[in-house]
Amino acid sequence: MDRLPHEKGFHVSWDQLHRDARALAWRLQDARPEAGWRAVVAITRGGMAPAMIVARELDIRTVDTISVKSYNHQTQAEPRIIKSPDMEMVGDGSGVLVVDDLVDTGRTLEVVKAAMPKAHIATVYAKPQGRPQVDTFITEVSQDTWIFFPWDMALQYVKPYHGADD
Ligand SMILES: O=P(O)(O)OC[C@H]1O[C@H](OP(=O)(O)OP(=O)(O)O)[C@H](O)[C@@H]1O
Ligand SMILES: O=c1[nH]c(=O)c2nc[nH]c2[nH]1
Ligand SMILES: [Mg+2]
């Protein structure tokens, strides 16, 4: 599928991210296997903040990371694993929760799922193209939306409306 230009922006504050990651945790509690979740694997870097919140809510103490790099700013390149989790612990992924901030095209998750085929994949946000790769998510945004996370933003002055044309 051709990539759409990102015409819209969806700006997420820390507070909103915290609420949405908590909502994800509550949904994942209902989806847990009988023996509970064994571990959380965060997809770095964006998955680390949501993974910490999910692990805290669900009292999961085993937390590992997989590092997949696919974007330079808004330009996508071939995703590649830069760092794997402890595969002896993860196994085929059964009982393991993989957490990322979002799925866009789904190419990052394709790589992750190849490494851990039985893992449960959870993202906070999802775009339609990548949605089939995800087992649990909270909020869907359109494909032409770029999601801006709090770690990529800063508070700044905005001109008052009445002076906008001055
Ligand atoms: O579904 P996809 O089209 O593959 O895109 C989604 C991935 O892209 C971003 O990560 P990025 O590679 O930019 O790295 P980062 O998390 O370190 O910012 C985002 O955090 C997801 O991991
Ligand atoms: O910060 C981000 N926002 C996005 O919408 C996105 N899609 C892929 N990678 C992304 N990173
Ligand atoms: Mg990422």
Automatic annotation (TrEMBL):
Q: What is its main location?
A: membrane
Pfam families per the UniProt record, alphabetical: Pribosyltran (PF00156)
Cell compartment(s), UniProt: Cell membrane
Q: Which residues bind GMP?
A: 104-108, 146-147
The positions annotated for binding guanine are: 104, 147
Cite the binding residues for 5-phospho-alpha-D-ribose 1-diphosphate. Answer: 45-46, 100-108
Its recorded reaction(s) are:
IMP + diphosphate = hypoxanthine + 5-phospho-alpha-D-ribose 1-diphosphate; GMP + diphosphate = guanine + 5-phospho-alpha-D-ribose 1-diphosphate; XMP + diphosphate = xanthine + 5-phospho-alpha-D-ribose 1-diphosphate
Q: Where does xanthine bind?
A: 104, 147
Query: What's an example of a GO molecular-function annotation for this chain?
Result: xanthine phosphoribosyltransferase activity
Q: Which CDD domains match?
A: PRTases_typeI
Q: How does it sit in the membrane?
A: Peripheral membrane protein
Required co-factor? Mg(2+)
**Domain Phosphoribosyltransferase: start-end pairs:** 13-157
Record's keyword terms, sorted: Cell membrane, Glycosyltransferase, Magnesium, Membrane, Metal-binding, Purine salvage, Transferase
| E.C. number(s) listed in UniProt | 2.4.2.22
Give the pathway: Purine metabolism; GMP biosynthesis via salvage pathway; GMP from guanine: step 1/1; Purine metabolism; XMP biosynthesis via salvage pathway; XMP from xanthine: step 1/1
Q: What are the binding positions for Mg(2+) in this chain?
A: 101
Describe its function: Purine salvage pathway enzyme that catalyzes the transfer of the ribosyl-5-phosphate group from 5-phospho-alpha-D-ribose 1-diphosphate (PRPP) to the N9 position of the 6-oxopurines guanine and xanthine to form the corresponding ribonucleotides GMP (guanosine 5'-monophosphate) and XMP (xanthosine 5'-monophosphate), with the release of PPi. To a lesser extent, also acts on hypoxanthine.
Q: Which family does it belong to?
A: Belongs to the purine/pyrimidine phosphoribosyltransferase family. XGPT subfamily.
Q: How does it assemble?
A: Homotetramer.
Q: What is this protein called?
A: Xanthine-guanine phosphoribosyltransferase
Species source reads Litorisediminicola beolgyonensis
